[in-house]
Design goal:
Largest sheet: none
Strand content: under 5%
Distance between the termini: 49 Å
């Protein structure tokens, strides 16, 4: 671990970066009010560029420490964990990637806002499944958890970048009648990304489904 720093010291240093004004804005932006999708979430008020900088500085934190951050009540600490997990995944061995993937799916209760999903799902779930069975995405797509359903569709962004659209289109059909606006937006985003690469594929999907899409 860098300079022998322990988890509690890293956490203490990280929390010194808090900003109450930014925290108040973030709480409104991420809909933390009663009956909103981020109800009860807490913020320190640390911007994403600062989080990325801290992730690089503390890159030698052990994986166990990242899981502790992932369980934090503060969203920025969960973001820090996910940024560091994606960085580890990119450089990791097959065994390490398997562990990161397993722990990621084992902690989806803490990956509980759209920014947390979007920054991590393609780079961990999508990347891991590139040459493997993608059955787990079908399971996530019918989960009761809004965030697991969003993980399912956003993870396919990794495949889209490889010009592989099959899973995105299949999961988009599954989520077509979803009740959550955040799922509609995620599906629309992925379909737009397909269209940016192959407009004919996107048009065919929309022609077949647009009457039933929100």
């Amino acid at each position: 671990m860098k300079n022998g720093v322990k988890f509690k010291n890293v956490q203490a240093d990280f929390r010194l970066l808090k900003n109450s004004e930014i925290a108040t804005h973030s709480a409104r932006f991420f809909k933390t009010g009663k009956n909103e999708y981020g109800e009860g979430d807490k913020f320190l008020g640390i911007r994403m560029p600062v989080i990325r900088k801290q992730a690089k500085y503390y890159k030698e934190l052990p994986f166990e420490a990242l899981l502790r951050f992932l369980k934090s009540v503060y969203q920025e600490e969960r973001l820090l964990a996910l940024v560091m997990m994606t960085n580890l995944f990119k450089k990791g061995s097959e065994e390490e990637r398997q562990e990161i993937f397993d722990e990621y799916l084992g902690h989806t209760d803490f990956i509980n806002n759209w920014n947390l999903v979007d920054i991590s799902a393609p780079h961990i779930v999508g990347a891991f499944l590139e040459h493997r069975s993608r059955k787990v995405l079908r399971e996530l797509a019918v989960s009761e958890s809004l965030w697991e359903r969003r993980i399912a569709i956003i993870a396919t962004f990794y495949f889209i970048r490889q010009a592989d659209f099959k899973d995105t289109l299949s999961i988009s059909r599954t989520l077509r009648d979803d009740s959550e606006d955040l799922i509609h937006k995620a599906v629309g985003w992925m379909l737009r990304e397909i269209g940016n690469r192959d407009l004919d594929v996107e048009r065919k999907f929309l022609n077949r489904n647009y009457k039933k899409m929100p």
